[in-house]
Amino acid sequence: MKTKKIIILVIVFAFYSNVQSQVADRTTYLSPIISEFQKGWPNNKTMNLVFHGHSVPTGYFATPNVHTLQAYPYLTLANLKGTFNKAVINTITTSIGGEDSEQGELRFGSEVLTMRPDVVFIDYAINDRRLSLARSEAAWTKMIQDALASGCKVMLMTPTPITSENLLDEQSPLAVLAAQIRDLAALHHVGLVDSFKAFQDLANAGVDLSSYFAHQYHVNEKGHAVVVQEIRKWFDLAPLSNKSFNDNKTIQYYPNPIKKNEKLKIDLSAFNTSEPINFSVTTIDGKTIFSKVISIFEQKDFSYKISQQGILLLTLSNEKEKQTFKVIVN
Question: pLDDT tens for residues 205-222?
Answer without folding.
Answer: 888 999 999 999 999 999
